[in-house]
Amino acid sequence: MKSDTMSFATIGRFWFPVLALVIPLAIIVVVTGQFGGLSIQRTVVEMLISIVIVVGLYVFVGNSGIISFGHATFMAIAAYASAWQTCCEMLKPITMSGLPPFLRDQSIPLLPSAVVSVLLAGGAAFLTGLVIMRLTGLAASISTLAVLFILNVVYSNWDSVTMGSASIVGLPTYVTAWLALGCAVFAIVIAYLYQTSAFGLAIRATREDEVAAAASGISLYWSRLIAFTLSGFMVGLGGVLQAHYLGTVSINSFFLSFTFLALAMLIVGGMGSLAGAVVGVVVITAMVDIFRRLEGGISIGAEQWSLPAGTQELIIAAFMLLILVFRKDGIMAGREMTLPEQEQREKGLING
Amino acid sequence: MANIVQVLVDAIALGSLYALVALAIGLVFGVMRLVNFAQADYITIGAYALVVPTASVTPPLLLGALPSALMIGGVLVVVMALALLTERVAFRPLRNSNPSTLLISSFAVSYFLQNLVMLIHTGRPKSVGIGQGLANAVEIGGVRVPGIQLLTMVVTAGLLVALVLFLKKTPIGIQMRAAAENFQMARLLGMPANRVIALAFAISGLLGGAVSLLLTIQTGTLDLRMGLMPVVYAFFATVIGGMGSLPGAALGGFLVGVASVLLQTYLPADLRPFRDAGVFMMVILILLVRPQGLIVTSAAKERV
């Protein structure tokens, strides 16, 4: 067989799961950019940022099978780091007087500050992972919860640097739909490359069977630590994007409600595949948006009608429970987007 | 000297409260490998059952208006019913799922209940006055102990003894311990799975109800998240005690409670707000030294 034609088809087949996710997202951005109202456009950007975050979360949770409640920590670290570097130069010496002088008295350009913030989040994930990845399944999950609480307590009370539980307002808002799309595509590509790499296959093996994987010479500790660190970088990127999209940073937006929503997205779509992570974000974002509008009130004819505030949270939680009970592996059930003939080939492989 | 005794009393009172919550978590974990986030909402809802649902910050009393015995009974029944309901609706269909799925589902149940309370009672903290007489201090051997702390210790000690007797002496208690040891095997030997699991939830509800009463008398306020911190502490308690070990859960509960009070007392004033972070850091450090927890059970290691 000729190598060049073969490789072309192979490359196409290899990248199909990514393209099948990225192209619809790009279409959504183009269409809503042309025809959608402002509020739809906002929802789309929020959705793209959520994709960065949830795909980042998926890199660890989906591949390792260990639930993490701690990823909002790394988002918060990146978002605050970015705020310290870029926010409100005039006010900083007063509101955040505890910052070291090189941060307090000047602003750092946007790109380097974003890079530094993301690196900081990844570094924090690496350090936490060094400790937590020594633990097994549930104990590790609960320890990530401890990490979330530690950061929340520290940032809520470290008034001179984080302004306590108040919001930091006035970050430059440079995140557009196209930038968010670019970052979402970047996150998807990274996650896909990782899960198809040797490291990715190794950690997926530990997810299916810890003992067998360890017996095949895979280090549970290192494979998980790598995934945890990579996913720390990625949610860090999500944190920076969110901070510079909303223009404000507040520690309470990185706590349990947010963690719940991110996990709900991952579980509903199906935590076993990249496609599941992305589909979950799209579905939950759409649901949240619809119910938020209904809570805001709509008029049917002359009647003004609205759902009581809080219905949206109840419905999301109930929906997630229904998915867990009736379709436990989520909407995508661990599958990637594949070409029909490819799927058959894979089935054939399994059967034969 | 009296000061140290005072601190010790505080520490033991808080430790025993956390031990109660940790036992509730540990019991349910034992029989179905479920780390139950919703325990926080059992506590919260038990406390909210004391008042009539209104938007007011000083709501009229509902169960709280009844005579003490009926009030206590009412709250316990409400919370036990709630625990059984969540078991039946949410957790029973998931019984054979892996622990991660169960953990996530309990997170969803908790989120659901919390928002339900918010929908019914609004999100504002409320004040409620029950058991005011207990605020008075009792003097014992030169140490003034607030009545509520004394009550907490007595209630905890009583419930602990009752629980131990139940688990060691009654047939169903023995079945429950067998289920915690090896669920499959116990089932093959005729352990009634549904009844044992339902009973574990009922007991966790009972303990949750007791905690919500103690907390409400102590603070005099109702808050959507009042159950959260005790349950998070209890999670860490069960992890450092050794998952699946009931004595471990109680021991862990005492440890985190005592550590919390000691840090509160002896940290310099400007570091005190960071107390919880200190306790949680300690949890992670203990796990670093003993990843399986302090008391390792045979059930903690997965069989191949």
Structure, described:
The complex is a heterodimer of chains A (352) and B (304). By secondary structure, chain A is mainly α. Chain A has a domain at 16-252. Helices cover 74% and strands 3% of the residues of chain A. Chain A is built from 16 helices and four strands. Chain A has helices spanning 3-35, 38-64, 71-86, 92-95, 101-104, 110-132, 137-157, 159-162, 177-196, 198-208, 210-215, 220-246, 256-269, 274-296, 311-326, 340-351; strands spanning 168-169, 248-249, 298-300, 303-305. In chain A, strands 1-2 form a two-stranded antiparallel ribbon. A two-stranded antiparallel sheet of chain A has the order 3-4. In chain A, strand 3 and strand 4 (303-305) form a beta hairpin. The model of chain A has no long low-confidence stretch (mean pLDDT 89). Chain B is 67% helix and 4% strand. Chain B has one domain (2-226). In chain B, strand 2 (137-140) and strand 3 (143-146) form a beta hairpin. In chain B, the strands form two sheets. A two-stranded antiparallel ribbon of chain B has the order 1-4. In chain B, strands 2-3 form a two-stranded antiparallel ribbon. Chain B has 304 residues and is mainly alpha-helical. Classes of the chains: A mainly alpha (352), B mainly alpha (304). The interface between A and B is large, with 46 and 42 residues.
What is the chains' assembly state?
A: heterodimer
Order of helices and strands of chain A: HHHHHHHHEHHHHEHHEEHH
* Class from helix and strand fractions of chain B: mainly alpha
| Total number of distinct structural domains of chain B | 1
**Residue runs with pLDDT of under 50 for 5 or more positions of chain B:** none
Q: Compute the average pLDDT of chain A.
A: 89
Transmembrane segments (chain B): 12-35, 42-63, 69-90, 102-120, 148-167, 196-218, 279-300
Membrane topology (chain B): Multi-pass membrane protein
InterPro entries (chain B): ABC_transp_permease, BCAA_transport_permease
Organism (chain B): Shinella kummerowiae
